[in-house]
Amino acid sequence: MLLLTLALLAAADRPVVVSALTTGQLAAQCQGKDKDPTASFCTGYILGVFDTLSVARQICPSPERASNIAVLAAARKYLRKHDDSDAAPSFVIRAGLREAFPCPVKTPPRTKTRRTRK
């Protein structure tokens, strides 16, 4: 019973991924030119992850910089460098898109300090 409890606690920190697709399999599907916008499983997968992250505000693409080709190129380049990752493919694509389309870091507002007169 103790081992089961420890196993459940260890697994609780990890997100649940139900996809049987591995990062290596996605990398194999995404071989080819980085800027190839041809409709394929790879293109659909990457754009689906992009749309999900954009709506969730986990990436911050600007209209001037984001296009299908720019998104595909960024994700494929990152995937090619990390095709041996043990992480779920959606997490690898997410990391690549976060690197390509980061959100600005919010700085806390400055507090006004009063100058004291002597």
From TrEMBL:
Rap1a immunity protein domain sequence ranges: 22-103
UniProt xrefs under InterPro entries: Rap1a
Database matches in Pfam families: Rap1a
Name this protein carries in UniProt: Rap1a/Tai family immunity protein
